[in-house]
Fold these 3 entries.
Entry 1:
Amino acid sequence: MSNEVASNAVVAFKINHDGTLSDGSVTATGGKGGNGFDLTTNSSAMPDALQSQGAVSVAGRHLVVVNPGSNTVTLFEIDAGDATKLVMVGKPTYTLGDFPVTVAVSERLRQACVANTGVKAGIACFQITNRGLVALERQLERVFDLQQSTPPSLFTTDISQTFFNEDSTALITTVRSDGNHTGTISVYPVLANGRVSTHDVRTSPPRTAFLFGAAVIPGTRDPRTGSSAYVISDPLFGAGVFRISATTGAVDTVALTTIPNQNGTCWAAYSARTRSVFLTDALGNTLVEMDPATGAILQDLHTTTGYLGSIDLVAPANGFVYALSFSTDHLTPAVAVYDVTAGRATARQVQDFRPSASSLSPNAQGMAVY
């Protein structure tokens, strides 16, 4: 999404047959973007204005995007014949809190759950209907006491990402600390009536601090414990492999992996083609590939395109990885395209896609694929 403060928009790019990108469309969300406040520079944060993963999410033919500056969320239907054509369903909907930064969407439940990380922080869930998003609660019931401001101050306690597990039986949220405490993983089970519970289990895994973006590892559910595997980034050291139970909320640490010379490893995406997880660094010109079973680093690719770093990324089934990146000159946005069709540890950059000047700015955030 463009995340422009005056008017937010979804920027859709075409994926060509060879995996490369080309310009597509820009569709207004009817809401406003926003920036967190960077205490280190005493100014608005950019790039990585929201410091979150999942500002844009896609499930089936539905796309949901947050509008941080107007405390709303927008639902779109994706055209079946041309995915760059988006039709707004209903109107932007109030998120019941302040400064929404991440949204989880479940096709099975036909629900979207939005996490707010401002003064009024917490998660609100909505039913997806043909008239738009309908709130399932009258007020914010999944509250997180972050002691935050609106807009939120960075490098303090914030919600990083909220997401459904593989079979939509739990809503999982990562919360990063102020650096003086451990990070937190919250697990809300989905009840028999299809609603997300308002009571969660919160765990602070030892030796973590800034738990951030998560990659769901499919096909790893243990029927005895209800736990599945996840890779979750933490810029304190790199990333960890965790098993999280949807039934009990228990979190077990499998491995904590230190990524050499990393500075801001925050985003994670699973690739079905390579059966591995890719991670990006906001302050490093790298793409790291990790084994989701052991946490071993399979490849640490250093690119030569002059990026300051990369943030949100996706790894769809076509065997490519797409990462939202910013150049060192004026923070010009780009999408780095990597080919991983040859399998594990074979990533190579094949495109440095620079969108049309009017579509993206350094405020851009979020990435999803259809």
Entry 2:
Amino acid sequence: MGPMGPTGPTGPFCLETCARPNIWALQPYRCARDDYKDDGTNILLDANENAYGPSLNLASTGNHTTNGTVASPDLDINFLGLNRYPDPHQVELKKALCRFRNTHTHTTRDLTPENLFVGVGSDEAIDALLRCFCTPGRDKILTCPPTYGMYAVSAQVNDVEIVKVPLDTERSFQLQPDTINSTLASDPAIKVVYVCSPGNPTANLIAKSDIQKILEHPTWNGVVVLDEAYIDFSPDGSSLAEWVTEWPNLVVMQTLSKAFGLAGIRLGAAFASPQVAHLLNNLKAPYNISSPTSALAITALQPENLAMMRSNRAKILGQRARLLEELPKISRVGRFLGGTASNFLLVEILDKPRDQGGLASNESAMALYERLAETQGVVVRFRGKEVGCKGCLRITVGTCEEVDRFLTETRSILQDVGHESKANKRATTGGTEEEHRETEASAIVA
């Protein structure tokens, strides 16, 4: 026995019984880079990142003044000040976010910094909302699959049960507000409804009227959380962020990871009523946003860099239109499912050509996914195990050169008769192994 008490197999410490049961049972978080790394040669069309890079005019970055500040027209990071903790309230960053979102499309009221919580990506807001409104082991959240996987991960971490009302696969993955409202009426333990718009992996905007139906529920005491991570790829005026000034039970989450091309700085925001934002800010860690992150985010929200963001967005939308035109010319590519309001598309892969009666096939989609990644270095995302997504790949829109490569390799692989035979053989002789590989590929959260 050591000074800290008995150890080893005969001692009292047992990790399995010491750890919280829900954490012990937690499935490992798997992200985009677990399977295929960014080695400098792969074309990464799997994580919905912005292939055109950050929306920052940093031509002169790298020239440092003697006091440690980056010499750039708009960026001001005092490297010699990194020994000091950052601003815990991030008022200037919040003001910049409010200026960007005060479009007055949905209300005449203005967002102010009191309407904001900022965190380490949208994921911190997802978790903070659960901790704010849900008592572990008692309360529940409602999600609408197919949807972003972090809602479920955070719920399991917080020991919160998930109730699911799937999107309507017969109506391009739209919300089912009447079914949701009936579910909320019958289960008061549901405290939070998470809705992703544009959807992930469905790329469709959720109808504002459907959101309003839930907000107007006559008896439910809970919060609707609208995840708008991809909203800047949608038509102008689509964001409902400013609508939180009208609805105290609405929270709208956003991020700089997508359209702004700043996934590496991990900056997310939650727009809410001042009362809800106050609760979220009360429970956060005091210095959750670093000084460099704050400086980069504020810089990205300045007019010159907003213009760069919009220019890059236009390039992405151009390549998205190209994929919509070119992919259907490949005989074993089926329908586009969902919508086209994001920087990715959800598309079926068929077991044989369309003119031969081809059907959406998980085996064919998985084989294409694996061959693209393992032999050609082109990484997309398999989504065939999700509700209504049989045989589907989710394809992030890349640069012109990346789309060229993706289309070329996809045509080649899907025209390969040997590949088709291999996929069909695998489906009939290796069902258990195939099922395991499909499940593993679908488990990636992003």
Entry 3:
Amino acid sequence: MSKSNQIYIAVIGAGGVGRHFLTQCSQLLPKYPHTSLVLISRSNRSLRVPSFNHTISLTTWQQDLAASDSPAISPSEVLDFLSSAPGKCVVVDNTSNHDVAASYPSFLKKGISVVTPNKKAFSSDLGLWQSILEASDRGNAQGGLIYHESSVGAGLPIISTLKDLVDTGDEILKIEGVFSGTMSFLFNNFAPVEGKGGKWSDEVSKAKNAGYTEPDPRDDLNGADVARKLVILARIVGLQLESINSFPVQSLIPKELEQCESGDEFLEKLPAFDDNMAKVKAKAEGKGKVVRFVGSIDVASKQVKVGLEEFEKGHPIAGLKGSDNIISFYTKRYGSNPLIVQGAGAGGEVTAMGVTADLIRVLQRIS
């Protein structure tokens, strides 16, 4: 096979999701012999092939990267490197870095495809979102492909399901669900359908110790992660939201604790505010309901919101287990019975699976 038919892959971000992604690639890429892994870059160092006749070993990449004395490289340097490749290229961005996200239009204009779970490219400035679409194959026949399934549902097919509904002419009426595996775990244990659950601060600590929260739990409890996911879905259905500040987002962080200097200090002081959440739970229980942290998009009224809602105990959202996510699509075609996607919505391995699946789609389209 000539080198012009070879596909060159660069990976930005090799910790967490990136590490799981590369592990999955060790099983995937041998099935695609026309692919070459030519660059791995993380925050403090990078590893690249000396020429495009070589490929990075997926067996020894961790040792090779650790032994590399090459510094991390910027998105513009990645672009320059790939622009000299003798074939098609794909960038896989496993970071949550805004500077990398802002570089997507430059890659796409050069015909370099992008695969990523990075929410910031699609939920921050509306202008960046529009630039990405215009530079991609959707707005430019010579543009690269862009896939970001994992930016909303980790390994769940949320974006692809919504795009299929839209592209086949269905009318989206409402999208509602639990979009955070962290919030799902917290409320399924704090306010279970059966039993009383624990104290709020205890459940937050348990979630952190189990690895469900960010190092500082406030990064989950402020609601911004869910808000970013709603911005992405809202834009797909045609709502031109400027940012996550365009609609109400309820934070579960007591105002008195917003200025804590660390996550540990926050957790230490949180028990003093347990009564606040206990009252919220008791109010729902008094109506025979449970409280959950949800996001919703009412397309007709253009109303988007994130926060606490009460649900009957028989409602699908109330009955979630563990850290499962659930997203309901109410459409004209599906009538009163929404199309529901449910399953694990958090974790490095399942998020990486979504990224890997997107890479497969790209390889199948550009091969």
